[in-house]
Each structure stands twice: as structure tokens, then as C-alpha cells.
Amino acid sequence: MATDGIEAVFLETHNWGRAAQFFQSLGYELEFDTGHNSGQLRNTEGPYVFIAEIPADREPTTRLVLKVPDAEAFRPGPGVELVTPFEQTHYGTLEATVRDADGRVWSLQAPLKG
């Protein structure tokens, strides 16, 4: 089974408020604020942006998350190395990671069944 486009962009930041304001200035609307320096924004029906504040001594990262409609049906094809299998997240989805031929790690996200 193939992926179904980009699900989300996960961003780490040193300042949740400034990062959220930046995306709101670009037309994104705040869907929810977790109450602990992170939250989700969306612009139309496209991928959402999830922003999480991290400590100043860590380098912020960005991850693209690809959508998988059914985790049980997903089978990595040639050139795709499964790094971590699908596991339930604390935020109510299933997530796995794969590596491409150049060594980049990609996140895959699927809905929970049931």
C-alpha cells in the first residue's frame, strides 16, 4: 500500500508564541493549543502544522509526515527500509519511520482503527 500524500509538518521551535504567530500571519488558523507550548494550525484542508517548543540547548528540527490510510496494509517497497514499525502515539495515531536510499528518515502516520 502506498502513502496518501503529506499529512503534517512537525516543527520544533524555541518560542511557541512567535512560531504560531508567524503561521497565523500566513493565513493558518489555530486548531488547538495543548496548553504546554505546542499546538496545531491548519490552512484549508491541506496538511496541518504541529509546533512544539523545545529547550534552548536543542537544535529545532522539521519533519514531514506522510499519510498512510491503513497501517496494517502498509508494506514498504523496494528502496524503503522500515526503521520503526507502527506504534500508537500519545496523541491518538499510529506512527512509523522509514529510511530512504540517501539515509533520510521519514515519518508515516496512520489512523487508529476502531
TrEMBL record:
InterPro entries: Glyas_Bleomycin-R_OHBP_Dase (IPR029068). It comes from the Bacteria. Gene3D superfamilies: 2,3-Dihydroxybiphenyl 1,2-Dioxygenase, domain 1. This is VOC domain-containing protein. It comes from Streptacidiphilus jiangxiensis.
